[in-house]
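Hypothesis: this fold can be encoded by more than one sequence.
Test: take the C-alpha cells below, design a sequence, compare later.
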C-alpha cells in the first residue's frame, strides 16, 4: 500500500510512514471499512410482464365499468325516458308500476294509494288531463300543472349527474256535511298528515289525499244515532258551497227514482236538491218527516202527495196529486172529443174524430155510421157540456207513459130523423165514460187512447 500523504510505498505491517511519519491504517482495517455494493435482487422477466398485464386489465375493466354506468344511466334516466314511464303507468292505470314514481309529503306511496289516485283522476272533471301535462313536461320540465293534483319533480337519490323524476301529489281540501247538525268525521285509513276542523255545520278535511278517500261520519243527536262510511273523490269538488253530503242508512229512507229530476221538499221546504241527487234521505227523526215533490207536466207543475217517512220504512214513492190544472186539462181534451163527435154524427164523417185513437171505440162509431147509412137516418144535435168526476181522476201509466185516467159525464142534445121524419123529439142525453189520456206518439199532443162507455 502507499502512504496517503507522500505516496511512499509501505509494507502491510507498517503503521507509520518512514518518509513523512504519517500514521497509516492497516490494510485489513481499511478493507473492512470499504463500503460494499448492495446485492441486487434479480426478478425473472416473465413475472415482470405478468404484473404489467394485470395493471392494464384492471384499468380496462374500470374504463368499461365507467362507460357502462354512464351509458346505462344516460339511457334510463333521461327526463324524457322517465316521463314516458310515468305516462305509461297512468294511461294503463297500472297502480303497481305507478306507486314507486309517486311522492306524498316526501314519503313513498303505496300501491293502494296509487290505485285511489288513478280512480280519482278517471272520475274527476279536471281542467286538463294528466297525460296532457306529462306531454308538455317532456318538452319542458317546468310546464304548468294548473288544475291538476300532481306535479313533476326530482325524487329520491341522484345517480352521479343523473336525476330521478316522479310525481309529487298535491294535497286537497274536502268539505263534508249532512242535512243535520251534530256530525263527527273521522278517517278509517289516514296517511297521517290530514287535519280535521269544524266550520259551522261542515267538517273540513285539510291536506286530504288526492283521489278516493274513505270517510266515516257519525251522527248522534235528537233523532237518534247512526254511522255511515262513504268513499269520496277529493278531486271532484273542494267547494265549500258544494260539500260532500252524507245520508245515514239506519236513520234514512230510500227515495223512488221515478221523478228523479223533481225537487225534494221536506216539511214543505225546498231541500235544495232533486230526488235523484238525494237517492236516500236522512237522518229522519223518529216521529217521521213529511216529504213531497213537484212534478212537471205538459199542463203545469203538479205537487205530489205528501208522504210521512220514518226511519227504516219502505222506499218513499211519490204519487202526483191531481189538482185544478190537471182537471182543467182533462176537461179540455174530453170537450174537444165531444165536439168532434157531434160533427161526426152530423156530417157522418169519421175523419172528424181526431182526438180519440182507441180502435175499439172507433170501430163502434164506424158501425153506427153504417147503420145510419143503411136506414137512411140523419142526426141533429149539439154539445151540451162535460163534467169531469174529480174523485175518479188519477195519474197512472199507459204503455210506460204518464197518463190521466178519469171518468166524465158528457151531455149531448140529440135527435134522430129517418127519411126526413122525427124518430122522437130532441132530448138531452148524458152518458158516462171512462177515459185514459196520454201522449201516444211522442209528438207533444195528447189523445184519448181509451174511451169506454159505462152508462
Amino acid at each position: 500500500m502507499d502512504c496517503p500523504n507522500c505516496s511512499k510505498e509501505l509494507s502491510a505491517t507498517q503503521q507509520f510512514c518512514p518518509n513523512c511519519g504519517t500514521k497509516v491504517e492497516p490494510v485489513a482495517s481499511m478493507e473492512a471499512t470499504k463500503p460494499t455494493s448492495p446485492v441486487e435482487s434479480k426478478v425473472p422477466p416473465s413475472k415482470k410482464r405478468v404484473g404489467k398485464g394485470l395493471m392494464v386489465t384492471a384499468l380496462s375493466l374500470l374504463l368499461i365499468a365507467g362507460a357502462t354506468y354512464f351509458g346505462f344511466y344516460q339511457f334510463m334516466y333521461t327526463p324524457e325516458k322517465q316521463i314516458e314511464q310515468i305516462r305509461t303507468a297512468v294511461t294503463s292505470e297500472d297502480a303497481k308500476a305507478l306507486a314507486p314514481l309517486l311522492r306524498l309529503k316526501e314519503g313513498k306511496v303505496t300501491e293502494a294509494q296509487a290505485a285511489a289516485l288513478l280512480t280519482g283522476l278517471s272520475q274527476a272533471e279536471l281542467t286538463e288531463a294528466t297525460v296532457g301535462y306529462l306531454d308538455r313536461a317532456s318538452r319542458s320540465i317546468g310546464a304548468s300543472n294548473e288544475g291538476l293534483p300532481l306535479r313533476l319533480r326530482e325524487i329520491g337519490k341522484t345517480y352521479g349527474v343523473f336525476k330521478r323524476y316522479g310525481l309529487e301529489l298535491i294535497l286537497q281540501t274536502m268539505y263534508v256535511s249532512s242535512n243535520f247538525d251534530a256530525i263527527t268525521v273521522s278517517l278509517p285509513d289516514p296517511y297521517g298528515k290530514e287535519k280535521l276542523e269544524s266550520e259551522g255545520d261542515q267538517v273540513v278535511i285539510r291536506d286530504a289525499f288526492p283521489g278516493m278517500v274513505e270517510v266515516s261520519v257519525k251522527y248522534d243527536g235528537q233523532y237518534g244515532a247512526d254511522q255511515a262510511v262513504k268513499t269520496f273523490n277529493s278531486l271532484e269538488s273542494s267547494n265549500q258551497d258544494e260539500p260532500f253530503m252524507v245520508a245515514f242508512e239506519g236513520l234514512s229512507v230510500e227515495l223512488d227514482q221515478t221523478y228523479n229530476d223533481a225537487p225534494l221538499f221536506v216539511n214543505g221546504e225546498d231541500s235544495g236538491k232533486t230526488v235523484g241527487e238525494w237517492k236516500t234521505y236522512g237522518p229522519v227523526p223518529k216521529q217521521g218527516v213529511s216529504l213531497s215533490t213537484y212534478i212537471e207536466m205538459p199542463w203545469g207543475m203538479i205537487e205530489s202527495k205528501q208522504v210521512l217517512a220514518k226511519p227504516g220504512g219502505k222506499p218513499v214513492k211519490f204519487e202526483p196529486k191531481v189538482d185544478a190544472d190537471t182537471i182543467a186539462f182533462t176537461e179540455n181534451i174530453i170537450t174537444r172529443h165531444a165536439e168532434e163527435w157531434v160533427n161526426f154524427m152530423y156530417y157522418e164523417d169519421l175523419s172528424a174524430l181526431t182526438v180519440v185513437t182507441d180502435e175499439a171505440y172507433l170501430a163502434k162509431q164506424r158501425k153506427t155510421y153504417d147503420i145510419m147509412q143503411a136506414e137512411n137516418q140523419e142526426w141533429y144535435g149539439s154539445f151540451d157540456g162535460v163534467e169531469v168526476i174529480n174523485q175518479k181522476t188519477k195519474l197512472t201509466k199507459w204503455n210506460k207513459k204518464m197518463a190521466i185516467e178519469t171518468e166524465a159525464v158528457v151531455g149531448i142534445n140529440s135527435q134522430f130523423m129517418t127519411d126526413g121524419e122525427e124518430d122522437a123529439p130532441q132530448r138531452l142525453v148524458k152518458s158516462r165514460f171512462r177515459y185514459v189520456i196520454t201522449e201516444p206518439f211522442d209528438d207533444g199532443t195528447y189523445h184519448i187512447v181509451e174511451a169506454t162507455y159505462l152508462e
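The CA atoms of residues 327 and 390 lie 7 Å apart. The chain has four domains: 79-167, 172-245, 255-309, 324-453.
Hypothesis status: open.
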